[in-house]
Design a protein that fits this description.
By secondary structure, the protein is mainly alpha-helical. Helices cover 67% and strands 0% of the residues. α1 packs antiparallel against α5 and α1 crosses α6. The radius of gyration is 22 Å and the shape is globular.
């Protein structure tokens, strides 16, 4: 599939934002985060900022942006519509959580209600985003059991490294959170490797024979291309990335997105002040850059079954 940057930024940005909101809500309600007004404003506001920028960027991939609101009415049958509806609802408890965090503190009676609601809706939104791709049976690289876990864990890891950076900037020390952050990034790395191995070793069940319905006559091969130039289907759904380039980009994603953040996060343990903040901020930026590469590959390596009609042997 053709990797549009607007969709890449949307999935990475919104995933990180929801991961950050999820962690702030959960850790805040159990008392592992300081209910400091300025910290809440920056942390929760930052999460909402990531989400908003991500959602806005997604509209640039729409052919008719004026129809975006109309798409929300299809929530009964469309994962895209469900994602839009839940993402809009999430603003309610998230803003209320920000309000009570800033003005009332953790002692507010409604604090747990808004925190838990924010966490649940954030997780549901990322799940719906993943299901937009997981539900497409025509694309084997998306229609598999690893797509949803990848989206959920990448969002959580992005939120974790961002939260640690905010904590370090506020000079809030914690002996356990850096290790937890590293653990989440390691888990994301492992799940992503499993996903890559899965798409490398399995294929879609469709073949040129089954797609054309001519399998009973023997092996089907293309005699002549249907077009002299690429059409819309080939441009959008027949995008191909060379195996050697994909392998190189995978190594970049693993190094920049996983290895470097883990090393920097662990290096920040035992440090304080500007040093700890600098290491954590660089770790967060490195993860986000690696996540952009990882998400570009997620789209670029996807093969639509329509390419079987244009000479592809398997997808």
């Amino acid at each position: 599939m053709h990797p549009a940057f607007s969709v890449i930024f949307f999935t990475v940005g919104s995933g990180t934002g929801y991961g950050l909101l999820f962690l702030i809500a959960i850790l805040g309600v159990v008392g592992l985060l300081p209910v400091d007004p300025l910290f809440g404003l920056i942390a929760i506001g930052g999460g909402l900022g990531f989400v908003t920028l991500g959602l806005l960027s997604s509209t640039y991939h729409l052919g008719h942006r004026e129809r975006a609101l109309g798409a929300l009415s299809q929530w009964r049958t469309s994962w895209l519509s469900r994602e839009g509806v839940i993402s809009a609802i999430t603003y309610g408890p998230a803003l209320l959580l920000l309000y009570v965090w800033y003005y009332r503190g953790g002692n507010a009676v409604t604090f747990p209600l808004w925190a838990v609601s924010t966490a649940i809706l954030s997780a549901l939104t990322v799940y719906c985003t993943a299901m937009i791709y997981r539900s497409l049976a025509t694309i084997h690289q998306w229609h598999n059991k690893w797509t949803v876990p990848v989206y959920l864990i990448m969002g959580l890891a992005g939120g974790a490294v961002t939260l640690l950076a905010v904590l370090r900037v506020f000079q809030i020390k914690s002996d356990t959170i850096p290790y937890c952050v590293s653990g989440v990034v390691v888990l994301a790395w492992i799940i992503k490797i499993i996903y890559w191995r899965f798409i490398d070793t399995t294929q879609h069940q469709s073949t040129p024979e089954s797609a054309t319905g001519l399998g009973h006559l023997g092996k089907v091969s293309k005699l002549e291309g249907p077009h002299t130039e690429d059409n819309y289907l080939l441009t959008e759904m027949g995008f191909r990335v060379a195996r050697k380039h994909a392998g190189k980009l995978r190594r970049y994603a693993q190094t920049i997105g996983f290895a470097v953040p883990i090393i920097l996060t662990q290096s920040s343990v035992g440090t304080a002040g500007t040093t700890a903040a600098t290491l954590s901020v660089i770790a967060a930026l490195s993860f986000l850059l690696g996540a952009i590469i990882e998400r570009w590959l997620f789209f670029a390596e996807a093969k639509h079954t329509v390419t079987l009609y244009y000479g592809a042997d398997r997808v």
